[in-house]
Amino acid sequence: METRFARDSAVIGAGDGRYDASLDDGWMREPGRLANGGYLLAVAARAMAAAADDRDPVSVTMHFLAPAEPGPARIDTEVLRHGRRHSTVAARFQQGGREIARVLGAFGALSHNPPVQFRDRTPPDWPNPDACVTWRGAFDDAGVTPPPIADRYDMRVPPGIGMWPLPAEGPDWSSGGYFRWADGDPADIFDVLAAADRIPSSVFNVPDIGAVWAPTIELTVEIFARPVAGHLVVRCSPRTVTDRYFEEDGELWDSAGALVAVSRQIALLGTKS
Amino acid sequence: METRFARDSAVIGAGDGRYDASLDDGWMREPGRLANGGYLLAVAARAMAAAADDRDPVSVTMHFLAPAEPGPARIDTEVLRHGRRHSTVAARFQQGGREIARVLGAFGALSHNPPVQFRDRTPPDWPNPDACVTWRGAFDDAGVTPPPIADRYDMRVPPGIGMWPLPAEGPDWSSGGYFRWADGDPADIFDVLAAADRIPSSVFNVPDIGAVWAPTIELTVEIFARPVAGHLVVRCSPRTVTDRYFEEDGELWDSAGALVAVSRQIALLGTKS
Q1: Which ipTM was obtained for this model?
Q2: Which 29-68 residues of chain A touch chain B by CB within 8 A?
Q3: DSSP letter string over B178-202?
């Protein structure tokens, strides 16, 4: 089944490692501009996975170079290694002759709910989705215009958890909640990449910081499992905030309780917008 | 002052973004072969930082493609962006015409002990170095030949902490301890990168796993501070181990208690060697 997200993030092979994409205006952070980082990561990873004989993304790192906007884009892939167990692929993501991101990734074989030999992580102890508030509704309540991407998915935020414009009550300064596509589509592995950088930064939740200018420099997602049908549980937490940079860690769980991915990003810490 | 590590990891600009290095046989995991991953990361980052007008490494990701050995190597850098606050640089690390690693990094400005606005990490609560055992001595005690790199540094391991061949007593399955150069040289920021992948994998400490074949696929280090003089505190912990892959997280603190860097790697989980 082709989902809406699969269509919106599709790539078409043009030969010699080149893939063409059309960035959809439904995945912008502002009307007509500033493509969401997770969306760009998913588009790039689709091209890179295709170049790696459709292996699954296991680790993808993106460095953001310039903002992207709706319209044509191209991804030039280079397969650096194609081994028995995994492939390594580099990619340049360009739009209008300008490089908007450079990407590096490893592609291997993943399954649903793989055996876990050890795990020093636990899923969030949150009330079920019915006891949560909808993120989309929070914009109306706050009198704030939602970004276009807020209409694409059904995000349920647990009481007290921050997700701008919803304030965090603390002491958990995470952002997150239960994520589903608004139209009921199931999540696939590229949606997991997208979800790792789709929600407002958790640094906004930290007292005395708030909603600052926070452009991502580098985002890395390591993926352990294909998600089963149902919601994804997304939790992103601030870890270290200095005077110049901050680090945010994320975990993504599926509805069967499998850890599907972890993420980390480092971003510039700007002044309040 | 030029330290031994600075000499051993030095690069010489050859024009057009190319840097030449000579991989030293003191930094191998086995005599004459298998260069340590942290050493390769430091060599690559020196070339990339030089290409970025000597800015400091803030985030560096390396994907490992093939083993490296002592002798000449070259790093071809490409500056993708040179902005006001940071630069983004890609690099190919080659030896004998074969690519051994691909690297992507961001370079900015770091200071000693920067102001911390928020931190959800705490340094290990370990006894001081004098109450620790020496890692080098553990090889003699275990009757195991140490790798060449074990002679290059003075590593003190807290009682009960695992660091192969020292067994972990648990329930903390971390590897780590206090790190200094054996010849008393101070650590610089490239040593921090090296230290992020210098010690035996913490996955070896996990019960029922042990010392397996565990080749790193991708290693990312985010750096927050230049280290002050004195030891580095290095702690690497297993987080998720499935049937195919494992994830290890690291933290590096300086002797003044500043978090200098965090690291994460994803590796293949092989069978016992």
Answers
A1: 0.96
A2: 58-59, 61, 63, 65-66
A3: EEEETT-PPP-HHHHHHHTT-SPPG
